[in-house]
Amino acid sequence: TVDRAIIATDITSVDLLVARAAGEKVGAPVLIAENGLLNDDVKSQLSSLNVQTVILVGGPAVIKSEAEKELAKSYNVIRLWGIERTGTAIEVAKYFWSSADCMVLADDTKNSDVDTEIQAPASSLAVESGCPFIPVPKGAMPAEVLALLDDLNVSAVKIVGRSVMDTGQLANFRVNVIAGVKIKIEDDVDK
User: Fold this and answer.
1) Helix 85-96 vs helix 143-151: angle between axes, to the nearest 10 degrees?
2) How many angstroms separate the CA atoms of 149 and 126, rounded?
3) What's the burial of 139, exposed, middle or buried (CB within 10 Å: 0-12/13-18/19+)?
4) In b/e form, how buried is each residue of 60-89, taking b as 16+ CB within 10 angstroms?
């Protein structure tokens, strides 16, 4: 028996991939809200799981407010989201991990086909490693990601996607993180 379930959307793959790593960590099923709405299949699965808490991964643009309101009638609902995909992933990591030995970073181009090709193996790597998966904007290393590495006391970063490695900010990332948190960076996939 599980006490919570996670719901992500099929509108973009990235929230689902982020949720997958979190779900594996805590043993919670990840269900899909098609087009950001609840369907009979999701409602039935939630009922049969007998969960008390439903965690929504994604903002109201991807999981509709109507779905949240409907869920709130029967469940404790927690919505994890940020302004962008990276922000949502950071909120998921903060909620499910109080510390993490590793973190997987991958390019986020905002092109669904390209992102799925890069991020699906990154999510699998995160699941296998038991660590959060964070998509980062192509060619950038947000300060929030650096802060999260420190907050979670991460000791190894696994990078999937070439532009994460090529960004000029990565030189600062390496210096700041190694000096601050002793991070070992691994280039796992050469895309």
Assistant:
1) 10
2) 15
3) middle
4) eebbbeebbeebeeebebebbbeebbbbbb
DSSP3 helix / strand / coil % (the chain, rounded to 5): 50, 25, 30
Residue whose token pair is 């950001």: 36
C-beta separation of 183 from 150 below 8 A: no
The larger pLDDT score, comparing residue 55 to residue 150, is at 55
Please, which residues have CB within 8 angstroms of residue 48's CB and are 6 or more apart in sequence? none
Give the separation between CA 26 and CA 29, rounded to whole angstroms: 9
**How high is the pLDDT of residue 170?**
45
Nearest Cα to 93, choosing from 123, 55, 134, 58? 134
- Beta pairing partners, 8: 32
**Distance from chain centroid for Cα 62:** 14
The structure's pTM equals 0.87
How many angstroms from the chain centroid is the CA of residue 125? 12
